[in-house]
Amino acid sequence: MSERLLEAFREEAEHATRVPAFELIEVAGRARRRRRHVMGGALAACVLATTGILLAPHDPSAPPRPAERPDDTSLVTPYPGNQGQVLDQGTYEFELADPSLPEVRFTLPGGWNSWIGPNLFEGYRNEESGAQEDEWYLGLLILDVRSVAQRGCSTTDLTGKDPAAVVQAFTRAARMRVTSGPDRIVRFGRPTTHLRLEEQGPSGGCLDSVLMFGAEGSGITFFGPGTTYDVLVLDLEGRPLVMLATWSRGTPRTEVDALMGVVDSIELVVDERP
Length: 274
Fold this sequence. Notes:
Blueprint: H1 3-16, H2 22-50, E1 76-78, E2 90-94, E3 103-108, E4 119-125, E5 132-143, E6 145-150, E7 154-157, H3 163-171, E8 176-187, E9 190-199, E10 210-214, E11 219-221, E12 228-236, E13 239-247, H4 253-264, E14 267-269
Parallel strand pairs: 1-2
Antiparallel strand pairs: 2-3, 3-14, 4-5, 5-13, 6-7, 6-10, 8-9, 9-12, 10-11, 12-13
């Protein structure tokens, strides 16, 4: 048989031969392996039972294993800062100007506004201009305080000072009357001093309207007579961190309670990376 004829015959034989169904064979093989696994497990259980080695039975009354929690960071929104936008309900993380200080997480109801700290208002009177802009205002400030206006038209520089110096500056703050404290307590797992102030009317002819400055250069102005300032000065191993909840006269009690609820939700986030 010539070489060309032999090649043609080989091709014809290949076309006439049925190719095995490899997919079906593979599926059948997996099924057999599963059956062997089940039978092997049942046989092992029988062997264990006959030899007196028993597996612990499943207790249906036992509490279920807790589900894996999602990464907490996926549920936290970076606080946008002084944007003047309305914020959604949720948990926010506030980053201070000094990165060596811990970040601060807090949970807000819906409808609050983004400022240096979160705030809420509905009508608030601007005491400086006398214009009837709003009826009431409240807000939360988290600050690395660098200075506080003092009585007698002076200012206390608090750069590098300890928490005790910051507390003392607040007790002598311009236009302020101490209505409670200072009291030593523990908040957020840290030694803390708590005091409450109430703003009085301008006196002494001081023209400066700024109550204090933070490390990022933000100036916090006075909000008007009758405004309450609930101050927490945290001691972070000798470094002060100020959390200040404030509300103007006429703020509904329910709104003040909501503000204090935001304060209660605060968590300090310490970066433990080496």
